[in-house]
Write a structure and sequence with these properties.
By secondary structure, the chain is α/β, with parallel strands linked by helices. The protein is built from 14 helices and 16 strands. An 8-stranded mixed β-sheet has the order 3-5-4-10-11-12-9-13. A 6-stranded mixed β-sheet has the order 6-2-1-7-16-15. β10 and β11 form a beta hairpin.
């Protein structure tokens, strides 16, 4: 096959690796509009299960990513000025730039052409004209998807809270949170290491807190200084850093959750953020994009001859849409938990942190937080309560999802 992959993010690069491993005779080009080594964001997170999947797809790139990652097990939260610790599963962080470099090097070693600073501006570009397969891995604002917007049926749901993606020289050895109450409401930070030199900090707050603190009008330097003061005990005197690229200021955003009615049109297929997004608070965006690549490569490997391209792309989309349901549900409830944060801040810090870990539950928004905490503690000791919780949660989630979709 001749494959044109538009977008040199993790999904596009990893898909090209998988396809070259399946058949070295595939002619594959990855087109990336930015220069090599240029990327937005700081570090990304993933969990141990992803490494097992990556090793099955390509052990060499999996081992390189694992070796370049930092690890943590504990979660730490500072609530007002009180610190609490929660023991959790092992998590991993890696710099986004480092991950992209490793994947690009592996792809090129296998014979993939990775063309940086090569912008594909539309579906009619000559580079795509004779491709057997065109992969739209060009992100949430995909130009290839938007060229056929009516067909794909993209829909966006915009979150209420404001957030900003920052870095810091403070190296965190655990996944850390800080919740600070101000005269204008709560503001909080998620922080995690991704190398031996730097960490990611994502700051979030309600729009009322954002404007009340003046973050809607302050320049980047003044905004960073204000947040450094607010989170001084988390940062231990270290500075916050805006965009990794010095010529571009960090921006406050509202998260947009993207869904698409269909995922392919002819030989054009959506991958990663071009197909779907999930709220950053569950830390799954990169994992889901890489899993897309694995699923698409598998569907193409298992197709019944060259004429089965449409069937393979249909099976890929059907599989991934089904697999994404649980992550999308978890992301939706996680975002809502933070949008309703004051509901939980009357609890003792250790209790609040426990419910932070339960924020994916469809039951939690409908049960008083103190009562839910007590039920959850009891469920940890009593098997009948555990079974009831496992039985009731999915049913409530399906009912609420159907209610939302019908507008009833």
């Amino acid at each position: 096959m001749k494959i044109a992959c538009v977008g040199g993010g993790p999904a596009g690069l990893y898909f090209s690796i998988l396809m070259k491993r399946q058949d070295p005779s595939h002619d594959i080009t990855v087109y990336e509009r930015n220069p090599a080594g240029s990327t937005y964001g700081w570090g990304v997170t993933y969990w141990a299960g992803l490494l097992d999947k990556l090793r099955a797809g390509d052990p060499e790139s999996a081992d390189a990513i694992s070796a370049a990652s930092v690890r943590w097990t504990d979660g730490v939260a500072i609530v007002r000025d009180e610190r609490t610790v929660h023991r959790g599963d092992e998590g991993f962080g890696i710099g986004r730039r480092r991950m992209l470099t490793l994947l690009a090097e592996r792809a090129e070693a296998l014979g993939v052409r990775v063309e940086f600073e090569h912008d594909i501006t539309g579906a009619d570009c000559p580079e795509l004209a004779d491709a057997d397969l065109v992969v739209a891995a060009d992100g949430v604002n995909s130009v290839l998807r938007e060229a056929h917007g009516d067909h794909f049926g993209a829909a966006f749901a915009t979150g209420r809270n404001r957030y900003i993606w920052l870095g810091t020289t403070k190296v965190f050895d655990s996944f850390s949170f800080a919740f600070k109450e101000t005269d204008h409401g709560w503001i909080w930070c998620y922080a995690y290491g991704f190398s031996g030199e730097q960490s990611t900090c994502v700051v979030e707050c309600s729009p009322e807190t954002w404007s009340g603190l003046g973050l809607d009008t302050l320049g980047e330097a003044d905004s960073l200084h204000l947040m450094e003061k607010l989170f001084h005990d988390l940062l231990d005197g270290h500075a916050l850093i805006g965009r990794a690229q010095a010529d571009d200021a960090a921006q406050w955003l509202n998260f947009r959750t993207l869904t698409n009615r269909v995922w392919h049109r002819g030989n054009l297929v959506l991958l990663g953020d071009a197909a779907h997004t999930t709220h950053y608070s569950i830390g799954a965006g990169t994992t889901l994009a890489l899993e897309d690549a694995l699923a698409l490569a598998t569907a193409l490997r298992d197709r019944q001859g060259a004429g089965d391209l449409d069937g393979a792309l249909t099976r890929y989309a059907h599989r991934r849409r089904a697999e994404l349901l649980s992550a999308q549900s978890a992301a939706r409830y996680s975002a809502q938990w933070y949008e309703n944060l004051p509901r939980y801040m009357r609890l003792e810090p250790a209790q609040m942190f426990a419910l932070l870990g339960q924020r994916h539950s469809p039951l939690l928004p409908h049960v008083p937080p103190q009562l839910y905490y007590r039920i959850d503690r009891a469920a940890g000791r009593l098997e009948p309560l555990r079974r009831l919780k496992r039985w009731l949660g999915p049913r409530l989630a399906r009912t609420l999802h159907a209610h939302t979709r019908t507008g009833a």
